[in-house]
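I'm stuck. Please check this protein.
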Amino acid sequence: MKKVIHSDKAPGAVGPYSQAILMGNLVFTSGQVAIDPDVGKLIEGGIQEQTRQVMTNLSAVLEAAGTDFTRIVKATVFLDDINDFAEFNEVYSEYFPSNPPARSAFQVAALPLGAVVEIEMIATVE
């Protein structure tokens, strides 16, 4: 049975979607950009600052679903500039010190609100 996941510690949806969906033992997050949930606006800063905020937002959503980064099986990363890939990886790797999930990364033409990075994830839940 499909269950909508919501966390007040992550930005609310800015459109007709849920922060995440739990289906069976899998959680599918929507893409997160670097919105500060306390003010509802994109944070200032470059790829590293925005990546940290995105990961903070995703952590809150995963926690609401009863899981965390250790149970991520797949991540999809959208970058507005593929030249940021190395700097992105520096921050991203902090969250996956061992056994990182499968991942795809793409450069896209634009991201919501002028963000430089967006990430969506799939995780397991026990």
About this structure: The domain at 2-124 is CATH 3.30.1330.40 (60s Ribosomal Protein L30; Chain: A;). The two ends are 15 Å apart (CA to CA). The helical segments are 47-64, 85-92. The chain is about 20% helix and 30% strand.
